[in-house]
Amino acid sequence: FEYLKNIDKWIYDELNFIIQKIVPIWTEERIHNSASYKEAVWHLYMWLTTWNQDKNFLVIQCLEALIHESSHNKLNLVNKFNKILLNNYDLKYYSAYRPDARHVWWVFLWIHAFVPTIYTLFKYYKVNNISDNHLLEKLLIYNIKNSLSLKVLNKHAKFTDIGNDIINEVKYVMNLTNNLIKDLNIDSRTLWLAKEKVIKHFKEVQKNYPHLEY
Questions:
Q1: Which ranges of the chain does DSSP label H, i.e. alpha helix?
Q2: Residue 172 Cα distances to 69, 165, 176, 198, angstroms
Q3: Which residue from 53, 84, 92, 162 has the highest number of Cβ atoms inside 10 Å of its Cβ?
Q4: 203 CB-contact burial (10 Å; exposed 0-12 / middle 13-18 / buried 19+)
Q5: What is this structure's pTM?
Q6: How confident is the model at residue 156 (pLDDT cuts 50, 70, 90)?
Q7: 155: left (phi > 0), else alpha (psi -120 to 50), else beta?
C-alpha cells in the first residue's frame, strides 16, 4: 500500500475506500493467484509467491493483484444496483485475454481491471527506473490487448448511461498509459516483439473460433 501511495495517490485513496479486508489464502513457490467474488464485495483473496525474493518482482505481483481485484470489486458493486450493459448473454465475442469465446460483459470486466493495473505497473516501472525487458514486454502485450478489447466493446457493447461513464473513465486511463509509454522511449524491437505475440494470439483464436464477433 505504501508503494501504491507513492505511485498514484488517486488510485491509493480509491482502493482504500473499496477494499475493507484482504484474506491471505496460501503461499506458492511459483504461483501467484488472487480472487474476488461478486457475493463478497469489499474483499480480496490473495496468494503470495515465495520463490523469487527480488523486491521489485514481489511488489509488482502484489500491486497487480490489488489493482486487478479491487477493480472487479468496484464493478461488481456498481452492477448490484445499476445495469451497465444491455447485451444478451451469448458467448460469442473475441477476448484478447482469453483463447475462447466470451460474453461481452467479461470483455468489459477484464478491460476494466487490466487498464488500471497496467497503468499502475507502468508507473511503478518508471518511478523506480526498472530495467527489465521481460516485464516491459508483458506490460506492452497487455496494453495492446486492452486496445483490442476496447475495439470489440466500441463495436458491440450496448452500454447504459452509467456504463458509458465507466468506459469513458477506462479510456481516460488508457490515454494516461499511452503517454507513459511514450515517455519511456522503449526500443522498437521490444515494441515489435510484444505486438507480434498479440497478433499470433489473435490469429490462433480466429482460426479456432471463426464464428466470433471481432
A1: 2-7, 9-18, 55-81, 104-127, 133-156, 161-184, 188-208
A2: 20, 11, 6, 23
A3: 84
A4: exposed
A5: 0.91
A6: very high
A7: alpha
